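Um, can you check?
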Amino acid sequence: MPFLAAVLNTMGLVFLTHAIYSTHEHHSLTASSPYKTSTTAIPSFPSIPLDILIELLASTLALLTGIVLSSPALKPIQWSTWSSSLSRSGRKSEGKYTKENIEVLGEGDPFQFLGLDSVREGEGRRGFWDGRGARGEYVGWVKAGGKA
């Protein structure tokens, strides 16, 4: 599939460039023509020939098909589905080793540093102020009589 996508992208770009160049040439030749049929003050642009339009549409279709074929797999729309699949997959080997012959592991969840799993367990997130916990401490302080 990647080879077909690359071929379609290349062909689409080449033919799209040719169609744009042909349109420019057609416009410049007809705009400077001494045989103008329009007598109005508003300049009229002649229509683009059918073969250039067909080339333009075919190249756009080939380019769009190549882009769709070369795009990576889509992620689920629901964030919880995507993050749970990342959490289940865990850390994986990247196939690289350090100088000390220690295997380099890739991160499974790119948002693991936020500590979202600990929020579900009631521990709070690292690096964020825990407003609910501070409010609980304040209520406990008030109930104890407000003494330090």
Summary: The chain has a mean pLDDT of 76. DSSP finds five helices and two strands in the chain.
